Amino acid sequence: MPRLKAITTGSVPSFLDVVLNLDEGDESSSLASQDTWLAQMKAKGTGRLVMYGDDTWLKLFPGTFDRADGTTSFFVSDFTEVDHNVTRNIPAELVKDDWNTMILHYLGLDHIGHKGGPRSPHMVPKQQEMDSIVRHIYKAMEAQDHLKSTLFVVCGDHGMNDAGNHGASSPGETSPALLFISPKLKGLQKSQEAPLPEAEDFQFYSTVEQSDLAPTLAALLGLPIPKNNLGALIPEFLPIWPKKTNQAYLLHQNARQIQTVISAASGTKTFDSALPIASCASPSSDYEELACEWQGPSNILMSARVGDDMDPQWALPVTRWLRKAQELMSGMASNYDMTRLILGQVAALLAVILSLGVATKTISSLTPLLLISIAYSIMMFASSYVEEEQHFWYLATSTWFGYLVFRGFKRYDTSVPRHFLLTAVPVLSAVRLSRSWNQTGQKFAGTPDIVKIFLEPNPHFLWLLVGLTYVWTHRQLVYSFHGRIPVPVNYPAMTGLVLAAFTFKAAFTLEDAPELVVPFVKSSLLDFTRGASLIARARAVFVGLCLATAAAMGFIIWEVATRKQRETPAPRRKKGISEKAEAITTIQNLYTILALTQSRTTNVPLFLVFNLIYWFLSTEIDADTTPLSTAELGVSSLLLQYASFFAMGGSNAISSVDLSNAYNGVSDFNVVLVGMLTYVSNWAGPVWWVVGTVVLMGKIWRRDQQQRLRLHEVKPQGEADENLNVVEVKEQGQSATGLFKTYVAVTTLFTAFSVAAVMAACTILRTHLFVWTVFSPKYLYCVAWSLGQHLVVNVGLGGLLFWLGSL
């Protein structure tokens, strides 16, 4: 949507358009009242306007098109249906002579890029399909009389990076192709070599700004230039007008129109009269400098318009001035409300101070958390570090777990390598494996990683790991319901739920990336459930999860109501584990099914890696000496939440938002459902770690209860145990609420630091070259992390689960 605004108005869209672009139901960004070349074509009254394809056009231009068939652009798993819906209308439209503008917005290439990247096996066949459509339209233009004066423009609204995403500032994302086709353009006699050698920066014949399309179309079609345009007429088209006076007139109109925009933005009438020589000797502003530089191009245009003999390159100074004016206005900072920015910054700093005060009273040692928070805050002031933030979390997580492993060596005889082989190697390998799963960020996006090197070329191995993940989850579910549901009901119910989730994942992958589905999966499972739609499959999984979750919650309520399980543990359960504790573990396992459903197939095995790290933290809690404290668990959870987000392919670019699973089980756009599914898809790992942390906190609470009970039975009242460290003594005196407060203090302190740092960076660097492509997207992610992940998930969901487990 922001790029379509640039193409049709010639202006630079606001950053708010990026946010509104994610709301498919938004109508506030309509261009119905703005001056565009599309509105000029409608006002021209020489024919109807028709549109087929992405329905963003219908929302931007309500009531503009006389014939239209729009389709949603957000279901990115569809490579063919939307495009076929566009193509089927072309033959009938080409034989009609009642239209003057036809928009054909194809989506297949965009969707293939999002799902498989530029090297997807679907890419070349789709490009060949687009070639055939271009060929078909051009042949019709040559053959039919009513199309001989038609201008055919083929362009992309954006490109993609090596990972198939867009929204940042890499050359691949900001270098879409632009092609003007018409039999009348043969008169330009341009002889250009084709194809050209590959270029990493995608700079080939010539480069223009996307906004240049608006004034160029206005000139070629005989329309007024849109009044908010910042584009410059593409100079290669000037020879179409053989008279130099006409060329000068077009350039002068373009320049005067941009001058009007500059005068409105600067609040001065800089270009209305010649500036004094003294002012041009030392211009006081960029606007004044631009006005001084206009004197030369202005004189050239006046000479050209009266027919004076001119140098063949006479237009070059004018186009250079247009480019400079365009750069000035395009890079101009917004009119920031500094009062509100300062108030927001003060509020953020106040939050840091308050959270620091609470954390000081709650946490015994703040050193690790402060080091992480301060280092992260400093990093937010460098664009390169923001783009490659994942490396900070990978390094911090590896260092922290290395420290925990090293501390564990002290508990054992270091001459025996048992601890090293059975604990240190698995957990450190798991941390290293997760960071190599997906290459993300900007610099290394699309480079080889585990998914590209091992899983995609070996789909049999991929499905072996996927199958193991679902089998492990099935085992955990059956075990957590054991003793509360009769075995004849437990096994079939849990097996049915897991099979429904697995078959949905297989069917979705078959539609999404069929090259990853092996024959065994297709023949054995999908053929067995043939005929079920993806929507029905997803709904079956969601309904099963809702029923199982309701059952788990029911057991918690029943246990609280009866109070019988407090004194009499259920048979076949581990000593000291209550019904409520296992019910919370059940919810954790049920969420795992949801996370697997909303994750990309290649990311499913990552949850096996997460389980290995989870096991390590569980063993640290049970250690006889220096066990893991609540604050240390909070630091571990914080690191793993961020590390898992990046390990699953997330980044600080808008382009990395994964919409592939946003419509699971949804037949039509619903902003609430799609928003929730989108969040779970992109934060599946972090939410999993929050739920897992709640279960581990319950384990710490039960451990401390047992220790207090042993101390009460063995020691006389008032006598202390000299072997207990300060953390153990402090936490043994904490209630369940106190434990959760410690965890919230850890996450809140870091969140306050991060919000304050990001806000300060965006404020101080508001004139930075990358403020819209790096810092502003980071601010949006900061909002998602602080409001969504911290307040809703960490505090809200985590608090609810911990409260249920401690009733």
TrEMBL record:
The chain crosses the membrane at residues 341-359, 366-386, 392-409, 540-558, 683-701, 743-766, 778-804. Belongs to the PIGG/PIGN/PIGO family. PIGG subfamily. Keywords: Endoplasmic reticulum, Glycoprotein, GPI-anchor biosynthesis, Membrane, Transferase, Transmembrane, Transmembrane helix. Pathway: Glycolipid biosynthesis; glycosylphosphatidylinositol-anchor biosynthesis. It is a multi-pass membrane protein. One of its GO terms (molecular function) is CP2 mannose-ethanolamine phosphotransferase activity. It is found in: Endoplasmic reticulum membrane. GO terms for cellular component: endoplasmic reticulum membrane. This is GPI ethanolamine phosphate transferase 2. Ethanolamine phosphate transferase involved in glycosylphosphatidylinositol-anchor biosynthesis. Transfers ethanolamine phosphate to the GPI second mannose. Residues 333-806 form the GPI ethanolamine phosphate transferase 2 C-terminal domain. Pfam families: Phosphodiest (PF01663), PIGO_PIGG (PF19316). GO terms for biological process: GPI anchor biosynthetic process.
